[in-house]
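The data are set out underneath:

___
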Amino acid sequence: MKPRVDDFVERSKHLQGMSDEELNVYFWQLVEKVVDPLVDLAQTHTSPSIERSVLLRMGFNSLESKQLVDMIFERGLLGKGAGHIVWRIAKEKGIDYMEAGRKLIEGQYWEDVDRIFKGVSK
């Protein structure tokens, strides 16, 4: 294997005159450049498996998570976020989010979901 040419001194010249504070600011600017595209992608793309994972982390079991995601997917609302939908219903109804999710599985509150997320009024 060919040894790597050590060019650190040359590549780091633009950093040499910076204070610790300036280096810290520069570091976080670079981090943002790397992470921003990932954040943008996450805001516009999801999948049933990602949404099930979110619900699992909220405390729902795998069967509940699958049912909720399937019901949300059938309504074309997966892009709104399964956890977000459950949380918004819980907030609106003044109940625990676990209870809200289980009520959705039982078929309740879907008219509220449509009103909130689709702008449907009845």
About this structure: The chain has eight helices and no strands.
